[in-house]
Design brief:
Radius of gyration: 14 Å
Structural class: alpha+beta
Largest sheet: 3 strands, antiparallel
Length: 103
């Protein structure tokens, strides 16, 4: 039987997916949207192993040199049964933030 994912499992999925897809990549504006698409697809495939919830996946990739100020993002899930998790990653040329909502 498949089980729904808890926050620790979601964080592990985000971490592993980001590292698998981006670890050897340098930021290129021409490929950023394709990388986000690959991240989303791989994450959703992994989440199919966890039933009982609907999942919303979001990734943001930003070039390091474009970061000129502070960026703040906040998300809230609606009930005590919902789960939300994010993971922040960086390499020499970019930042990536992944977020999963399990509702």
């Amino acid at each position: 039987k498949m089980e729904s994912a808890d926050a620790g499992t979601l964080r592990s999925i985000l971490k592993n997916t980001i590292e698998e897809v981006l670890s050897e990549e340098d930021y290129k504006p021409s490929s950023a949207s394709d990388l986000v698409k690959v991240l989303n697809e791989k994450t959703l495939i992994e989440l199919r192993n966890h039933s009982g919830r609907k999942y919303i996946v979001q990734y943001i990739i930003q070039k390091k040199s474009d970061v000129t100020g502070m960026h703040i993002s906040s998300s809230t899930v609606g009930t005590t049964d919902d789960v939300s998790c994010n993971y922040r990653w960086e390499n020499r040329s970019m930042y990536c933030i992944g977020h999963i909502f399990a509702i």
